[in-house]
Amino acid sequence: MKSLYIHIPFCNRICTYCDFTKVLIKNQPVDDYIEALIKEMKTLEHRDFETIYVGGGTPTALSVKQLEHLLSFISENFTVSGEYTFEANPDEVTTAKLDLLKYYGVNRVSLGVQTFNDDILKVLNRSHDFNDIFRSIDHLEKIGLNNYSMDLMYNLPGETFDDIDTSLKYVEELKPRHISWYSLIIEPHTVFYNEIRKGRMKIDDDNKEAEKYIRVMDGLQNLGYPQYEISNFSVKEYESAHNKTYWHNDNYYGVGAGAHGYINNERYYNVKPVPHYIKAINENDSAVKETLRLSETEMIEEEMFLGLRMTEGVSKERFRMKYGVCLDEYYKEELTSLKEKRWIWDDGLNIALTDSGRMVGNEVFMRFLKSS
């Protein structure tokens, strides 16, 4: 087993764009949730992992006492041979919490910056401001937790190309090891979705969004951050090992409310509401709400969707070893058509998206559907 994902669904503030499983932490049964989470982790068959990722919500919304309780359990019951990541908000990165993370072996922090524009941060309902970003990074570097990922977004309401250039300038100044820079996606059941539906807010059209994406890609490339996935960039040897578990379509556990995992060709999904999760764990030792067993055709489709997100693409040899078939033969017609459009390249070892293919990624992915 390669990886474990641990979900902390609590936030001090709900962002206007967020559709993840999350709740405001105030008046929530946080201690009961952590006990249920620990109980679920005790049922896991494996104890040794290459990567552990604690995400949310906002894990750093936990108190120091709650954080230590969770971290000490992980430390006493699991080993992680590689990357151990904690998500954090800049305003919540206190010295006390960072000291705990480092003491218990966390070696990577994913910092939710989103933008350096204070006005846009307010629109996003983020709890931090410009100064918090620099203060938190200063804390990280002072205690030696300097392997951090800076999470950014583009195509935000009111954002200009100057805002992107400003973010690039601060990336150059701060020199993070890793950058995740995602386009804003308007999800149902979010504040932004309702604002757009009612005509009170606009975001750029697809053409302008594509222009901003190109500005992001070119800007980071020029700063020494090669792109290794559609929205991820890093200096050499600092790619996200945990996220590559997903993109390589490998097995992983997911624990917590709304978490999902992938074990032995079966995807499972935990119940989402925090009280329902706690009740399910306490009564059944399991919070799994739904399981989906994948056919071989579906596994192959996911191998393509996920693998093509990466710049290196899908390995033909890996494909053959996993599924016992030749990629060139299995998708012969699809590959021929996509090569003619110059949306994919083929070096004999891998199939990957070209620059133009990356701009129409979803359309490319649809070509590999055989089960529908």
Automatic annotation (TrEMBL):
Transmembrane segments: none annotated. One of its GO terms (biological process) is porphyrin-containing compound biosynthetic process. It holds the Pfam family HemN_C. It is found in: Cytoplasm. InterPro entries: Coproporphyrinogen-III_oxidase, Elp3/MiaA/NifB-like_rSAM, HemN_C, HemW-like, rSAM, rSAM_horseshoe, rSAM_sf. Keywords: 4Fe-4S, Chaperone, Cytoplasm, Heme, Iron, Iron-sulfur, Metal-binding, S-adenosyl-L-methionine. The keyword Iron-sulfur applies. Gene3D superfamilies: tm_1862 like domain. GO terms for cellular component: cytoplasm. Residues 1-226 form the Radical SAM core domain. One of its GO terms (molecular function) is coproporphyrinogen oxidase activity. The keyword Cell membrane does not apply. PANTHER family: COPROPORPHYRINIGEN III OXIDASE, RADICAL S-ADENOSYL METHIONINE DOMAIN-CONTAINING PROTEIN 1, MITOCHONDRIAL. Belongs to the anaerobic coproporphyrinogen-III oxidase family. HemW subfamily. Probably acts as a heme chaperone, transferring heme to an unknown acceptor. Binds one molecule of heme per monomer, possibly covalently. Binds 1 [4Fe-4S] cluster. The cluster is coordinated with 3 cysteines and an exchangeable S-adenosyl-L-methionine. This is Heme chaperone HemW. The lineage of its organism: Bacteria, Bacillati, Bacillota, Bacilli, Bacillales.
